[in-house]
């Protein structure tokens, strides 16, 4: 199974924020949308980075409430780990494990094609395992 199949099911819409949005408004948006991260994009839609709940919490732990005034550009991770639509679910899980991240922007030809979370990948892996088990049961029953 590939990332492309996951995006076909969940869609390619990705919530994003502007580089000048402050931590308070980002935190509100994340809570409202019930998501853990948002891409940071410029006015032309170019991906600049990603800002997560973790980024905000770490800034608060370091600086206290003044961190709430920090912008997405100041909080974001600019060195993104990405996948392509052709990346397998297993490869994407390995990327997330190795880089200790929970969200992967999906890029195709230098453009954003979507984003997947660890939850999306685990759900896909479980569905794969269930299908394999069902195929084995059908094979054994037919034999």
Automatic annotation (TrEMBL):
Keywords from the UniProt entry: CBS domain
Which SMART domains does the entry mention?
CBS
Residues in CBS domain copies: 8-68, 76-132
Q: Superkingdom of the source?
A: Bacteria
- Stored PROSITE patterns: CBS
Pfam families linked to this entry: CBS
Looking up InterPro entries in the UniProt record yields: CBS_dom (IPR000644), CBS_dom_sf (IPR046342), CBSX3_CBS_dom (IPR044725), Diverse_CBS-Domain (IPR051257)
What is the name listed in the Swiss-Prot or TrEMBL entry for this protein?
CBS domain-containing protein
Organism equals Roseomonas nitratireducens
């Amino acid at each position: 199974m590939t990332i492309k199949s996951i995006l076909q099911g969940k869609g390619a819409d990705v919530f994003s924020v502007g580089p000048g949005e402050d931590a308070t408004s980002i935190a509100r948006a994340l809570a409202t949308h019930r998501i853990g991260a948002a891409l940071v994009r410029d006015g032309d839609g170019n991906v600049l980075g990603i800002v997560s709940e973790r980024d905000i919490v770490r800034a608060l732990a370091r600086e206290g409430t003044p961190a709430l005034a920090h912008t997405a550009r100041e909080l974001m991770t600019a060195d993104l780990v990405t996948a392509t639509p052709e990346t397998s679910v297993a490869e994407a899980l390995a990327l997330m494990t190795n880089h200790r991240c929970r969200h992967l922007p999906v890029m195709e030809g230098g453009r954003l094609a979507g984003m997947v979370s660890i939850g999306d990948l685990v759900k896909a892996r479980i569905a794969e395992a269930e299908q394999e088990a069902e195929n084995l049961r059908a094979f054994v029953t037919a034999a």
